[in-house]
Specification:
The complex is a heterodimer of chains A (272) and B (328). Chain A is α/β, with parallel strands linked by helices and 272 residues long. Helices cover 36% and strands 24% of the residues of chain A. In chain A, helix 5 (137-155) crosses helix 6. The two termini of chain A are 36 Å apart. With 328 residues, chain B is mostly helical. Chain B is globular. Chain B starts with a helix and ends in a 14-residue tail after the last helix. The chains are: A alpha/beta (272), B mainly alpha (328). Chains A and B meet through helix 2, helix 3 and helix 4 of A and helix 7, helix 8 and helix 9 of B.
């Protein structure tokens, strides 16, 4: 068992801190269907935590519980050492948890820049009139926000499409813009729902590199869902494995890979 | 200068003024459409409701007097005081914000994620409901509205043009005031939606609810804000139109004039609503002036709609609407 507060050092020499988020005995039901059954796990400061499992295992539901889109019937969510009361998604976002979606949710009619700027909404405190007339705090704030946004745009190499309406972009770039918007919020915890779904090999490599760089440069704690096992094993520090709403494995990629239950879930069990 | 040309100039000026009035109504539609993708059928009735409330408050009428009298057998109609115009307007703004909140809590909140057509139907229901409530609250008789806006011919323009063209233009003071009000309103709204965080949040909500939630925008707050703004614009339109032609049921039909304006200007553009209004205003007046006599007149009744139809065929997003982008 890992110590709750103290961190540890990974094989590649990165320091992982204490527990940021802890899910305790989460159960989520849709009518008679139990999507998540009594699952507990934690996410530590600075790590890349993956949630994997076959289709319909309840991975996305779990992410939706963390980001407040679903409210579990049972269990507790602890964030930064405090028990979280049931919250609406926008309240969760204001706590510093940003996310991306499996089926990209961008503001299609707006430019890339505007999309990323929406990620800064909670970093603006000037009032309506200051903003409208460009007076007082508004100017300094806008300049600071634009700087941060440009930094992220540079970082994710989307300078060339800054002014393009998002609806015009190809799928892979949209995924990147969505990541940029989530990053713009300077989240304490970043949730990625299948960041590489539907991408070709080259795009997957790019995205993997960006995820690693984000974690490395900004020290962002990341929880991600992914199907591609190879990618998951390369990227993540620790992995939770789900199957039919239950947790069947939790540990480093190597531990999980050698777990018999996990192998059965992925390859199937022979019935003779 | 030929007499015809001078007359055409006067007609054009009047057309511009009429256009501003149409634009005032169209603005309310654009606001809600931009922020929620809903075509708010009730916008015209909201203008009527706002104007009736304003008159009612100014005259110190007891709201729901008929209902109260029927139940308790009394004969109250007025509180016995008169409220000055500015205060009454402030109170009416309060009522419109309350209405916005009620619409959100009682109707729109329960329809999150529904098809636009469902939301549209809900606003039709809202329109009829509001019409009934307005009558019940303030009575259905025709009322006059006077908040102190100047009315009647502008003497200065009349005399100046008389000296230049030997023909005095008839320009109504109320129209001039309406133009100034509309200008201020548009400037304010454009600044709001382009430069403020609430404005950006509003555009975000219009585009994608899930994504908006994920960046920390409260849908409820934005929708109440948007309906309040639409209520405020409805009040402004109600004041101007109510002053011009009295507060009565037909006030709610000005919404019909806003439709072609929206098709020209685009449903999503605030400046588009203004330009669309001006084109229709000038267009229908000049058309009536030039072609009207040849076809027996009354072209004003249909000109705007024919123009709108042509736009639907050749430029469905309107002059300033968002481009329809499709990836193939």
């Amino acid at each position: 068992m890992l110590d709750q507060t103290a961190g540890f050092v990974t094989e590649d020499g990165r320091t992982i801190g204490g527990v940021v988020m802890e899910m305790k005995n989460i159960t989520l039901r849709f009518g008679g269907v139990e999507a998540i059954k009594d699952i507990s796990f934690d996410i530590r400061e600075g790590e890349i935590r993956a949630i994997i499992g076959p289709n319909g295992a309840g991975k996305s539901s779990m992410l939706n519980v963390i980001s407040g889109f679903y409210v579990p019937q049972d269990g507790e969510v602890w964030f930064h050492g405090k028990k979280r009361k049931p919250m609406r998604p926008y309240e969760v976002a204001r706590q510093g948890i940003a996310r991306t979606f499996q089926n990209i949710a961008l503001f299609e009619g707006m430019s890339v820049l505007d999309n990323v700027m929406t990620g800064r909404l909670n970093h603006m405190s000037a009032n309506l009139f200051q903003q409208a007339f460009w007076k007082g705090r508004a100017e300094a704030e806008e300049v600071a926000n634009r700087e941060k946004v440009e930094e992220i745009i540079d970082f994710l190499e989307i300078q060339a499409i800054r002014k393009t309406p998002v609806a015009r972009l190809p799928y892979g770039l949209k995924k990147r813009v969505e990541l940029a918007r989530a990053l713009a919020a300077e989240p304490k915890l970043l949730l990625l729902d299948e960041p590489m779904a539907g991408m070709n090999v080259e795009e997957k490599e790019d995205m993997s590199r960006f995820i690693l760089d984000v974690n490395d440069e900004f020290g962002t704690t990341i929880a991600l869902i992914e199907h591609d096992m190879g990618v998951v094993m390369d990227l993540s520090d620790r992995v939770v494995v789900m199957d039919y709403g239950k947790k069947i494995g939790d540990g480093t990629p190597d531990e999980v890979r050698s777990n018999q239950q996990v192998i059965d879930a992925y390859l199937g069990v022979s019935h003779d | 200068m030929s007499e015809q040309l001078v007359f055409a100039m006067e007609v054009t000026l009047n057309g511009l003024m009429a256009g501003v009035l149409y634009a005032l109504v169209a603005l309310g539609f654009v606001l809600i459409y931009k922020a929620s993708g809903i075509f708010n059928y009730a916008q015209g009735v909201m203008a009527l409701f706002a104007a009736m409330t304003l008159v009612g408050i100014m005259n110190g009428q007891v709201p729901f007097a008929h209902v109260i009298n029927a139940i308790f057998g009394g004969h109250i109609t007025h509180f016995g005081w008169n409220v000055p115009g500015v205060l009454a307007i402030a109170l009416t703004v309060g009522v419109m914000i309350l209405l916005a909140w009620l619409v959100q809590v009682l109707v729109m909140r329960h329809l999150v994620g529904q098809e636009p057509i469902i939301l549209f139907m809900a606003t039709i229901g809202l329109a009829y409901f509001l019409e009934g409530v307005a009558d019940l609250m303030w009575g259905s008789e025709i009322k006059t509205l006077d908040v102190g806006l100047p009315q009647g011919i502008n003497i200065w323009i009349d005399e100046t043009t008389f000296q230049i063209f030997d023909y005095g233009f008839f320009i109504d003071n109320l129209d001039l005031v309406a133009t100034v009000i509309a200008g201020l309103l548009v400037a304010g709204l454009v600044m709001f939606s382009q430069y403020t965080k609430q404005g950006r949040a509003m555009r975000a909500v219009a585009d994608d609810h899930q994504a908006a939630l994920s960046v920390g925008i409260s849908l409820n707050f934005i929708w109440v804000l948007v309906w309040s703004l639409a209520g405020f614009v409805a009040l402004v339109a109600g004041i101007v139109w109510g002053t011009k032609s009295g507060v009565q049921f037909s006030l709610s039909l000005i919404a019909l004039k806003a439709l072609p304006v929206l098709m020209l200007g685009g449903f999503t553009s605030i400046p588009g609503a203004i330009v669309g209004g001006l084109i229709i205003g000038v267009g229908e007046k000049l058309f009536e002036f030039a072609i009207g006599p040849l076809v027996g007149g009354a072209t004003e009744n249909w000109f705007a709609y024919v123009l709108a139809l042509l736009f639907l065929v050749f430029r469905p997003q309107g002059l300033f609407g968002e481009k329809i982008i499709e990836r193939v």
